[in-house]
Amino acid sequence: MFSSRDAFENDACPVADDLLGQMYRANPNGLSLLVANVAPDIRARLALFCYRRSHLHALAVAIASSCSEWELVNSGGRVGSTLYALSREPARATTTSHGGRKPITLSTKPLSSFAPIVDDELDDEDVSETVTVTA
């Protein structure tokens, strides 16, 4: 069993970057097909690799759902056990339409208020003195 120190020192993605990208972009049905083609020990290490990155957390839980508890604990210790438990929890209902991502909210109030600009009338003489024409 690896210690958490070993996991961070040897923190390299256990699959090719292309495959990881395909998994990231896949729908749930496509993801299960992609994950099925990965060896069980590599799959557990991949789930742990993704779990350590916040933007891949949902992918980690989905991959971990296809792993056994022994595989995850053997590869990640307590973190693997936690990931196994997370992957077995009932799915939380999300109301977002962006693949489970939280919606972005924008402020409806002005960011700051400025004092109104007062137009100062300049005399024609003042303007002609400040502007010099070079030929």
How would you characterize the overall build of this protein?
With 135 residues, this protein is an all-alpha fold. The chain has a domain of 85 residues. It is built from seven helices and no strands.
How do the helices and strands line up, and which of them pair or pack?
Blueprint (H helix, E strand, L loop, with lengths): L3 H6 L7 H9 L2 H9 L3 H12 L5 H8 L4 H20 L35 H7 L5
Q: Could you state the order of secondary-structure elements as H and E?
A: HHHHHHH
- Counting DSSP H or I runs of 4 or more residues, the number of helices is 7
Number of strands: 0
Strand content: under 5%
Overall mean confidence score, pLDDT:
78
Biggest sheet, in brief? none
| Shape verdict | elongated
Global Rg: 28 Å
| Low-pLDDT windows of residues | 93-97
Structural class: mainly alpha
Distance between termini?
A: 82 Å
Helix content: 40-55%
Summarize the structure.
It is built from seven helices and no strands.
